[in-house]
Amino acid sequence: MMKRTWLLLVLLAVCLPAAATDMYSWTDANGVKHFSDSPPPANVSHAQKLKVKGGVTTTSNSDGDDQHKDEAAKSAGPTLAAAAGYAPDDIKRNCEIARKNLTLLDAQKPALDSYGVPLNTDVAKNHQSQVDKANQQIKLFCSN
Question: Which strand (E) or helix (H) includes residue 50?
Fold first, then answer.
């Protein structure tokens, strides 16, 4: 029993510093989103330092930002995306893309038989999976 307690304390001591590590987020010149515990390269102009508190990630400059608080009240999705390090332009662009994808998917519904059953269930499942993904992206990136 004493060995288990000691082992638990050692593991806890090892894990705690890792949980308190600063995190950084930035988008490179190719549009790839990066997350790291190391600061971004010097040529990156729009990096964000992230805070993790109680399992919730926020940007380090959001404490006194009233506009950020108003946006959080309007919609949790875009606020979570911003807290994850997405720039406002990226959130807007991803919202537009997700809405366009859903519109395209609505226009490309799988063929149904006379009873309303899909002719090809694999195609129908794939289509529904893509619709679900587009809806999740809309929920994350769009205010309404």
Answer: strand 48-53
For residue 58, what is the enclosing H or E element? Answer: strand 56-59
SS3 for 45?
coil
Band (pLDDT 50/70/90 cuts) for residue 57 is low
Each residue's pLDDT tens digit, 38-49: 778 777 777 787
The tokens for 106 are 């609505």
- Under DSSP, the state recorded for 119 is S
Contacts of 88 (CB under 8 A, 6+ apart): 82
Secondary structure (3-state) at 75: coil
Q: Are 38 and 16 in contact (CB under 8 A)?
A: no
Tell me the residue length of the chain.
144
DSSP string for 68-135: HHHHHHH-HHHHHHHHTT--HHHHHHHHHHHHHHHHHHHHTPPPB-TTS-BS-HHHHHHHHHHHHHHH
